[in-house]
Design brief:
This protein is an alpha/beta fold. The chain has three domains: about 70 residues, dopa decarboxylase, N-terminal domain (Up-down Bundle), CATH 1.20.1340; about 250 residues, Type I PLP-dependent aspartate aminotransferase-like (Major domain) (Aspartate Aminotransferase, domain 2, 3-Layer(aba) Sandwich), CATH 3.40.640; about 100 residues, Alpha-Beta Complex (Aspartate Aminotransferase, domain 1), CATH 3.90.1150.10. Helix content is about 40%, strand content about 10%. Helix 4 runs antiparallel to helix 12, helix 6 crosses helix 8 and helix 12 packs across helix 14. Bound molecules: pyridoxal-5'-phosphate.
Length: about 475
């Protein structure tokens, strides 16, 4: 008799789910509550976990208990802790528990936005939530937003939209065979790697991505941009898009958006602003001068899944001309047509994927639970903590903060006068190793002008002054 004949329950029944879900919630609550007691880093070795996981899937039910056991015994030891108060690595990827609840509900409901009709609440809540975020950021009402998974995807979509504006929808019609002069994308050497990747996928080709020179503050040099576009035009190429960064990944430098918009104004070049991390700072009116000129962009991306606190993934792409985006992205199969199509937003035509998760629920949940002022207060706390640490470091030579840091990330080096070049690099990486070996902080090394330094990115949800002070003590101990 085949096994399927003994099949009893197609999945957990709701009562069994209720019992287990309470345990899962308890697990998460305990994890978050006790997180600070764990080392933030871990010492997993490549392949170690994999070797412990059975090669063959079970033939018979093992129950969810087995999953929880795996989690405690095998998976957790192979996880550093992103929500830990001593997380100073990369950029914060905050999953506020209010957003976690929204995410949980979204998954539990299991609705898909294929059309407005397939889940009207999904579309309309997203419409409202991204507009709330726009208002919180002080952006004009010329912007229309949509939630994507990541900034990488948002930037890809922006470059496809740019490509189609320059080619008057030629590339989307004739594909790679439209046979005209090559289109060129401009960004800076400090831009995120996702920009190059997006340009590669969108068909521009690596050869047609210009890394415009940066100035001493590592911001794009708008005059160099002007010169590069002129040179490309003179050579018969077509300048198509500029991707400016407001808050670069290595040093949080801000490209000068007004000067960039001026430099490309006469050529109808699409301006996309990557403010994946720093975009959250738009919530603070006192920080908005950093973004002067952003209103002249055609598109921008910010990631509420970084500093703001919406659990990964939630990236918001804002565009000025949503009609254009939809014309580029639209496909219209009969099985997805409804009577409402001309009266509603159809977000599948604002991006790549057809199926759309109810991501708006976690953004909504974060904003409703906290309100603008509490979110602002937290961001200000992090900026104040970064200022405090900067002062400590600057008044303790040979420690140095290497570049101006308008946000919450500091680029730090300890520079004993007798060490230069490779020796200094070895010193930097050695003290960082000693810090990590304590398990009491997690930082990211990165290269600046070919030399190693250490990024200290402050802004995990639970990071208070005491954690930053403890970090500073740890750094000093590590060089002794
Ligand atoms: C983090 C970051 C990205 C990439 O974000 P994803 O959402 O992971 O794709 C892109 N640009 C900047 C400036 C970033 O800081």
């Amino acid at each position: 008799m085949p096994d399927s004949a003994q099949f009893s329950s197609p999945s957990l029944d709701p009562e069994e789910f209720r019992r287990l879900a309470h345990r899962v919630v308890d697990w998460i609550a305990d994890y978050r509550r006790d997180l600070a007691k764990r080392p933030v880093t871990n010492d997993a070795h490549p392949g170690e976990l994999l070797a412990q996981l059975p090669a063959d899937p079970p033939r018979h039910p093992e129950g969810f208990e087995a999953v929880l056991r795996d989690l405690d015994e095998r998976l957790l030891p192979a996880l550093p802790h992103w929500q830990h108060p001593s997380f100073f690595a990369y950029f914060p990827s905050n999953g506020d528990l209010a957003a976690v609840l929204g995410d949980f509900l979204s998954t539990g409901i299991g609705a898909l936005g294929l059309t407005w009709q397939s889940a009207p609440a999904l579309t309309e809540l997203e419409d409202r939530a991204v507009d709330w975020l726009r208002r919180m950021c002080g952006l004009s009402d010329d912007w229309q937003g949509v939630i994507q998974d990541t900034a990488s995807t948002s930037t890809l979509i922006a470059l496809v939209a740019a490509r189609e504006r320059t080619t008057a929808h030629g590339a989307i019609t004739a594909g790679m065979q439209h046979g005209e002069a090559p289109l060129v994308v401009y960004t800076s050497a400090e831009a995120h790697s996702s920009v190059l990747k997006a340009a590669m996928i969108a068909g521009f080709g690596r050869d047609h991505v210009r890394q415009v020179r940066v100035d001493a503050h590592r911001a794009m040099d708008a005059e160099a941009l002007r010169a590069e576009t002129a040179a490309d035009l003179a050579a018969g190429r077509r300048p198509c898009a500029v991707v400016a960064t407001a808050g670069t990944t290595t040093t949080t430098a801000f490209d000068p958006l007004t000067a960039i918009a001026d430099a490309v104004a006469e050529h109808d070049i699409w301006l996309h602003v990557d403010t994946a991390m720093a975009g959250s700072a738009l919530l603070l009116p006192e920080m908005r001068t950093l973004f002067t000129g952003i209103e002249r962009a055609d598109s921008l991306v910010m990631n509420p899944h970084k500093w703001l606190g919406v659990s990964f993934d939630c990236s918001v792409l804002y565009v000025r001309d949503d009609q254009h985006l939809v014309r580029v992205m639209r496909t219209d199969p009969s099985y997805l047509r409804t009577d409402f199509d001309d009266r509603v937003k159809t977000y599948r035509d604002w991006g790549i994927a057809l199926g759309r998760r109810f991501r708006a629920l976690k953004l909504w949940s974060l904003i409703r639970t906290h309100g603008t002022e509490r979110l602002q207060a937290r961001l200000r706390r992090d900026l104040a903590n970064a200022r405090w640490l900067r002062q400590q470091i600057e008044s303790t030579p040979p420690w140095r903060v290497l570049v101006p840091s308008p946000l919450q990330t500091l680029c730090v080096r300890h520079e004993p006068p007798d060490l230069t070049g490779d020796e200094l690099d070895r010193h930097t990486l050695a003290w960082l190793d000693r810090v990590h070996a304590t398990g009491r902080a997690w930082l990211t090394p990165a290269q600046l002008d070919g030399r190693w330094m250490v990024r200290v990115s402050i802004g995990a949800l639970t990071t208070e002054r005491e954690h930053v002070a403890a970090l500073w003590q740890l750094l000093r101990a590590a060089v002794r």
